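Justification of resources, computational component.

The compute hours requested in this renewal are based largely on the per-chain cost of generating structure records like the one below. Each record pairs the submitted sequence with a full structure-token output. That output is archived, and it is also reused by downstream analysis tasks.
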Amino acid sequence: MGEYRTPERQSAGLYPFEQRMLERYFPQAPARILVHGAGGGRELLALAKVGYSVQAHEPSAALAKAAQGLVQSRDGVSVRGQSVQEWAKEASGHFDGVFTGWAMWAHLVQKQERLDVLRAFRRVCPGGPVLLSFFRADQCFSISEQRSQPGPLHPGWQSRLLHLTRHTIREKLLRLPAIERGTGWHDGHFYHLTEEWELRQEAAEAGYEVAYWEKDALIYPHAVLLPAP
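The structure output for this chain reads:
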């Protein structure tokens, strides 16, 4: 996590895909932007430098502190130590756009929490865009040239090992929520893999439509949501 606090990372500016989406879909500064998953402050510093008013949130106390130190002397910029799930329960304020941190969407592994967050975005930013970046689950190719079909929200684990660990131990013994489709495990954390059909479905349930879905495999996976008419 320390890599997100280095001066080089903090001052790196927006990634090319973030810059393109900002210019194409977001209102110009000094619009008010909500940032979630702010990390060490890279995105919010870049937005503040070009004149945006920014309210940022970051669940890691160490990263939130680093981001606060980065922008403490700038007017109209604030950082709060809070996860997007916590924020969604009591979301308030009014914003012109929502800018989420790099791959933040991958950390929301339950469909209900993704819907809760999207609906909270819609309440505080009723007319503005939402930029999401994530880990993509879509297959690269199919020998039969068939598109992947939507799977059940709660898969029936076929292998004996997955059934033991993900069903018997997790659900029966530990009484934890069932692991949903698209959930992976890496470096001690669960993460979610997003498919296009799934994001379009969840966006529609929350009052959005997918205005942009990046299809180029060389570009980091991202999408922009706009309020549905």
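Residues 46 and 149 are 39 Å apart (CA to CA). The beta strands are 32-36, 53-57, 77-80, 97-100, 130-133, 135-136, 183-186, 189-194, 208-213, 222-227.
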